[in-house]
């Protein structure tokens, strides 16, 4: 029991007895109101009981204790101002990270182009399409191009690669949001046999979107040299038939006529679609100067 409470009750019992009628007056009673080991009440009052003055502990002493702060009432540890400042700093940090990431990606792309020999791959060409109309590289400016070099007498590899190229184009056209149009081109490496009529008949077997190009030996040599395409006609058989050994690569060219990327025979249509989509988005981002 609290010593103060014990003393107070003892005095009450004593004053109720007749023995306290001649009790000597006490000017003050050194009673210390102990609430805890570290906190003492200072607000006490004197009461007179049958001529005896004692210190009374106020009933309100509990309210004088420091109250434990309840979070959620009034100001908490995080105010709206602090929250907005934190979000602002986070937003600035995020934009900064996006900028650094963009610059890093641009540097990687630039390095990749240097490694691929961008300046040495691709260039101008002047050929004839499968309708007999002259077609130059400038006619395709503003369009993405997928270019495959082959020949119409190819038994298996060329048909497979052209079908894959058409599948890629069709899948890209289905993409939402819609990506820019891309034109598939077939350029022959066998101008001796692949004239306009032969090329026209060949491309119709795959897709109405496929554009076939042919030309003189000199013009074919120029375009294959520009794109670093290897080709070599093999020995002729008794029927004057022969196979042309050539590079099996599909080239991606941007709307400015610049070589961007290439895809070998081992790449699946899905992989090519994903790669082209990324290249298109990078191109758009670089032109718009926007990260969002």
UniProtKB/TrEMBL annotation:
The keyword Metal-binding applies. Disulfide bonds join 154-158. Its main location: mitochondrion. The keyword Transmembrane applies. Cu cation binds at residues 154, 158, 246. Keywords: Chaperone, Copper, Disulfide bond, Membrane, Metal-binding, Mitochondrion, Mitochondrion inner membrane, Transmembrane, Transmembrane helix. It is found in: Mitochondrion inner membrane. The chain crosses the membrane at residues 78-100. GO terms for molecular function: copper chaperone activity; copper ion binding. It comes from the Eukaryota. One of its GO terms (biological process) is mitochondrial respiratory chain complex IV assembly. GO terms for cellular component: mitochondrial inner membrane. Copper metallochaperone essential for the synthesis and maturation of cytochrome c oxidase subunit II (MT-CO2/COX2) by facilitating the incorporation of copper into the Cu(A) site of MT-CO2/COX2. Belongs to the SCO1/2 family. Homodimer. This is Protein SCO1, mitochondrial. It comes from Araneus ventricosus (Orbweaver spider).
């Amino acid at each position: 029991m609290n010593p103060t409470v014990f003393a107070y009750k003892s005095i009450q019992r004593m004053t109720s007895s007749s023995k306290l009628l001649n009790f000597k007056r006490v000017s003050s009673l050194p009673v210390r109101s102990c609430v805890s080991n570290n906190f003492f009440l200072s607000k006490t009052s004197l009461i007179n009981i049958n001529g005896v003055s004692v210190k009374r502990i106020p009933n309100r002493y509990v309210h004088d204790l420091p109250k434990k702060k309840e979070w959620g009432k009034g100001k908490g540890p995080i105010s709206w101002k602090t929250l907005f400042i934190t979000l602002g700093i986070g937003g600035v940090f995020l934009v900064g990270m996006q900028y650094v990431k963009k610059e890093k990606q641009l540097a990687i792309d630039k390095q990749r182009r240097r490694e691929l020999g961008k300046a040495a791959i691709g260039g101008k060409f002047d050929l004839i399409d499968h309708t007999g109309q002259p077609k130059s590289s400038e006619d395709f400016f503003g369009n993405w191009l997928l270019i495959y070099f082959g020949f119409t007498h190819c038994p298996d590899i060329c048909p497979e690669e052209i079908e894959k190229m058409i599948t890629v184009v069709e899948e890209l056209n289905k993409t939402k949001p819609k990506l820019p149009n891309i034109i598939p081109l077939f350029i022959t490496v066998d101008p001796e046999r692949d004239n306009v009529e032969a090329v026209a008949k060949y491309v119709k077997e795959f897709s109405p979107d496929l554009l076939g190009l042919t030309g003189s030996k000199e013009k074919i040599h120029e375009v294959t040299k520009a794109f670093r395409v290897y080709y070599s006609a093999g020995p002729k058989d008794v029927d004057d038939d022969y196979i042309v050994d050539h590079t099996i690569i599909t080239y991606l060219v941007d709307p400015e006529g610049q070589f961007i990327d290439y895809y070998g025979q081992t790449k699946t249509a899905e992989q090519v679609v994903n790669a082209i989509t990324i290249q298109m988005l990078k191109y758009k981002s670089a032109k718009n100067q926007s990260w969002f």
